[in-house]
């Protein structure tokens, strides 16, 4: 009995922690939603950061932010090395309080607040630089795509694994000038393309959501977002490879300080997010996976997802908030 009781307590704490993560992303999404369509991305990001920081103060962990946001564009941030939580087990945290700041500012789809959590040392400590990425959903043969293979070869192999034609595939990537060659080669191979203005965490996650209609994600985006996306795929299934992209020696030096020994290394999904991973996201604006915040009078409705790699369970949570008792969400 003395051995069984601690295990039962541990399971209860794990389940409570998963729900607490949802409360953290809900707080950030609610705060950011005040700025939807207002054309002020930094204000939206700042509101999400502050709300997430306050919400973490109630979570029973001794957390350290190892994947933060905001260094590249000098936006507000939960910075790398920041300690959060009310005390408890030591955990590493990856955050993007507002994935899709520009999307929020313009009222575009797929903006969301994101948090991932793992035991200490289980996230790749990626600096805020760019990362080359390729990702596909679950249920496919291992190594069906390779980050170093030609675009046409990856698409042919994926089509063969899916028992379809390349012309049936839909690729997703960020709409950036740096992707012009990638776009051209994808279309030349015969696949269709969905171009995202922002939000590559949602783009990667969509490969594991059949209803999203995305078969493969390719191209470069933020390295912190790459680790967050890997955390999500660890929970819902999928393959992903990532390689850090450095612009100068100062970025290489910074990565080495953070534990990156080989600047050219290709990381698999379970090397970017290892062990027992929890992931939560709340929609700020409506997208393929989550509905956005619906504000009405003195309240709002949020739509979130929470998942865990250990169990493979994915839960969607609809929450109805009363602002007369949650006054902090207005700040």
Keywords:
single chain; 331 residues; alpha+beta; eight-stranded mixed beta sheet; six-stranded mixed beta sheet
Question: How does this model look, in words?
Answer:
The chain has 331 residues and is of the alpha+beta class. Helix content is 32%, strand content 26%. The protein contains nine helices and 14 strands. The chain has helices at 4-33, 41-56, 101-106, 151-161, 180-189, 200-206, 223-236, 249-257, 269-272, and strands at 62-67, 83-84, 90-99, 112-119, 130-136, 170-174, 192-196, 216-222, 239-245, 267-268, 278-283, 294-296, 299-308, 314-322. The strands form two sheets. Strands 1, 2, 3, 4, 11, 12, 13 and 14 form an eight-stranded mixed β-sheet that branches. Strands 7-6-8-5-9-10 form a six-stranded mixed β-sheet. α4 packs across α5.
What value does the Rg take, in angstroms? 19 Å
* N→C terminal distance: 47 Å
What is the tally of helical segments? 9
Mean pLDDT: 90
What low-confidence regions span 5 or more consecutive residues with pLDDT below 50? 4-13, 70-75
Estimated helix fraction: 25-40%
Q: What's the order of the H and E elements? A: HHEEEHEEHEHEHEHEHEHEEEE
- Overall geometry: globular
Estimated share of beta-strand residues = 25-35%
Secondary structure class reads alpha+beta
Oligomer: single chain
- How many β-strand stretches? 14
Q: Profile the largest sheet.
A: 8 strands, mixed
């Amino acid at each position: 009995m003395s051995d069984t009781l601690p295990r039962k307590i541990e399971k209860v704490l794990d389940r409570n922690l998963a729900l607490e993560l949802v409360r953290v992303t809900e707080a950030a999404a609610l705060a950011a939603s005040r700025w939807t369509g207002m054309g002020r991305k930094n204000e939206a990001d700042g509101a999400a950061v502050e709300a997430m920081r306050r919400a973490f103060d109630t979570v029973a962990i001794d957390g350290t932010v190892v994947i933060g946001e905001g260094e590249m564009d000098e936006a507000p941030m939960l910075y790398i090395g920041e300690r959060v939580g009310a005390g408890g087990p030591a955990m590493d945290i990856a955050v993007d309080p507002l994935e899709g700041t520009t999307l929020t500012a313009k009222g575009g789809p797929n903006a969301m607040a994101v948090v991932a959590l793992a035991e200490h040392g289980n996230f790749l400590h990626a600096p805020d630089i760019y990362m080359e990425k390729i990702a596909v959903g679950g249920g496919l043969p291992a190594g069906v795509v390779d980050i170093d293979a030609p675009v046409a070869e990856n698409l042919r192999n994926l089509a063969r694994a899916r028992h379809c034609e390349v012309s049936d595939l839909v690729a997703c990537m960020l709409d950036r000038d740096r992707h012009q060659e990638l776009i051209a080669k994808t279309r030349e191979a015969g696949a269709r393309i969905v171009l995202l203005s922002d939000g590559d965490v949602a783009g990667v996650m969509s490969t594991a959501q059949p209803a999203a209609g995305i078969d493969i994600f390719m191209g470069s985006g933020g390295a912190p977002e790459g680790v967050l996306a890997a955390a999500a795929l660890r929970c819902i299934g999928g393959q992903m490879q990532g390689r850090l992209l450095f612009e100068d020696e100062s970025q290489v030096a910074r990565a080495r300080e953070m534990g990156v020994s080989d600047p050219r290394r290709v990381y698999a999904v379970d090397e970017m997010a290892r062990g027992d991973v929890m992931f939560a996201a709340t929609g700020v604006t409506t997208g393929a996976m989550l509905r956005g915040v619906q504000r009405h009078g003195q309240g709002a409705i949020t739509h979130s997802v929470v998942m865990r790699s250990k169990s493979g369970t994915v839960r969607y949570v609809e929450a109805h908030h009363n602002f007369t008792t949650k006054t902090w969400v207005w700040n």
